[in-house]
Amino acid sequence: MAVDLLEFPFIGGRPALNFVGTLGKRGSEDIERLRTPEDLTRWGIESGLSKAASATATSVELTASAVELQDARLLREALYGLTMATLGRAPARSTDVALVNEWAAHETHAPALVLRSGALHRDEPESTAAAVLAAVARDGIDLLTGPEAASIRDCEDPTCTLLFVDTSRSHRRRWCSMARCGARAKMRTLRSPG
Questions:
Q1: Which of 73, 75, 81, 166 is the most buried (most CB within 10 A)?
Q2: 3 in a domain, yes or no?
Q3: The CATH number of the domain where 158 resides is what?
Q4: What is the residue range of 57's domain?
Q5: Has residue 40 been placed in a domain?
Q6: Residue limits of the Zinc finger CGNR domain (predicted)?
Q7: Which residues contact 150 (CB under 8 A, 6 or more apart)?
Q8: pLDDT by residue for the chain (194 residues), tens digit each?
């Protein structure tokens, strides 16, 4: 199964880990999936963290700037560093903590109830790249300090660097995705002699 390396892999189980996965093959090839502000816009929409995710293609409201793209990459790396610290692989850096906290505290508008023609409707706030990054930061705080922190895993495929939350019953999940890395591992096993 061929995988487009620039497509966003939404297989981490949490928005923060999916966001960390926007840099693929860390340390070897460093495949940057957030290359342009449009990529950040697309991630926000595809992740479901943007109101535009449910909008038609002609009414996409989320747009990101070059500055927000740079901010997004910095937040991503801070979350990655703190995830590695949570896994005991690196010391936590106070600069990463401060950056995640700064984004988590970013003011965002909340959804509201609206009464129209006697019926209740949900009024969604306008989506912004900053609101998406704030949601990612808040999810990161929740993940890294909550019970799922102990279930964060690395994909065992040596060519993959994606992280995921292992929610399997046995807590023995090995691959980020059976359809991606698990299938490749099985093919290698089948092809190996003896």
A1: 75
A2: no
A3: 1.10.3300.10
A4: 15-191
A5: yes
A6: 152-191
A7: none
A8: 455 678 999 999 999 999 999 999 998 999 999 999 999 999 999 999 986 544 443 344 688 999 999 999 999 999 999 999 999 999 999 999 999 999 999 988 888 899 999 999 988 787 899 999 999 999 999 999 999 999 999 999 888 999 999 999 988 888 887 777 866 766 666 676 75
